[in-house]
Each structure stands twice: as structure tokens, then as C-alpha cells.
Amino acid sequence: MKSMLQGFVLVVVVLAAFAGTPVLAEETVQATEGAAPDAATSASILAWALWALAPIGAIIGLIFAMFFYKGVMKHSEGDDLMAKIAHHVRQGAMAYLRQQFKVVGIVVILLFGVFSLMTYWLEIPGMTPLGPFAFLTGAFFSALTGYLGMKTATNAGARTANAARDSLNS
Q: How far, in whole angstroms, is CA 87 from its chain's centroid?
């Protein structure tokens, strides 16, 4: 399951990185028509470099998040009572998140339908064919961020309380 999720994330990141490139390339060609060929090439390289920044920034952010999460997880939750309370807090937080995902999931599906309708049936100008899928990608990563943030925060709570028993600096 974990490798399947990692594969899905990789595919989505690659698609997101290259989805808008033809539009950007078309705008670059229009902006540099009549300009020297070197200007068009430079603008094209700049466009590709700007599109590469998003996935590179995302990967760097994920590396830092993993580094900090591992740093949190190496500390002790404390005695049995503290660990038991922390476990119940995590269960409650995840139950809240599941309920929130159900409600937000319905809204995301409805909005995906509206955006698909606007794109494919009404053919509204400015709506790109990948627009509804970009919305789904954003919703997925937003949910993933919320889940990972909640998991990190609930794991850090008991560890912080336990470290504070020793000293403020811990």
C-alpha cells in the first residue's frame, strides 16, 4: 500500500510539473514573436526553469518534513500513563480528521464535477482540459498535508510534555 501511494504521488508530481508547459511555451512564443531567436530560446529556458521550481521546492519541503518528523519520533512519550493519554489523543484527532475528510471529500467531488462541466460541456474559454484534474491534485495534496501535520502534531504533544519534565530546553 505504501509503495502504491508513493508511486501515485510520483506520477501526480510529474504530471503537475509538465501539465502547463505547452500553454507556457505558447505564451513564450507569442511574447517573443519578432524577437531575435536567442530571446525566444532564453524565454523558453526561463519558462522551463520556473516550472521546475515547484516540484523541486516540494521535494525539498518533503525532505525537511521527514527530517523533522524523525527528529520528533526519536524522543520518548514518557511513562505508560502519558503514552496511553497520547494514544487516545491521536485516536480522537484521527477520528476528527476522518469526519472532516468525508465532508470536504463531498465538496471536492461536487466542485470537480462543476469544473469538468465548465471545461468539457460548456467549453468556457480559459478552462484548460487539465484544470479539473489540477483541482483534484491540489485537494489530494492538501488532504495529505493535513493528515501528515495532524500525525506529527499528535505525536509531538506527549514527547514535548515528557521533555518538559526534564528541562525547558529539552
A: 26
The single-letter DSSP state of residue 168 is: S
Greater confidence (163 vs 4) lies with 163
Q: What is the pLDDT of residue 16?
A: 53
CA–CA gap between residue 72 and residue 160 (Å, rounded): 9
Amino acid identity of residue 66, one-letter, is M
Indicate the Cα dihedral angle 46, 59, 101, 151, nearest 10°: -150
Ranges of H-type helices in 20-130 = 21-31, 37-73, 80-116
* Distance, CA of 93 to CA of 103 (rounded, Å): 16
Could you identify the residue written with the cell 510534555? 161
Contact of 139 with 108, CB cutoff 8 Å:
yes
Residue 33 banded pLDDT, cuts 50, 70, 90? low
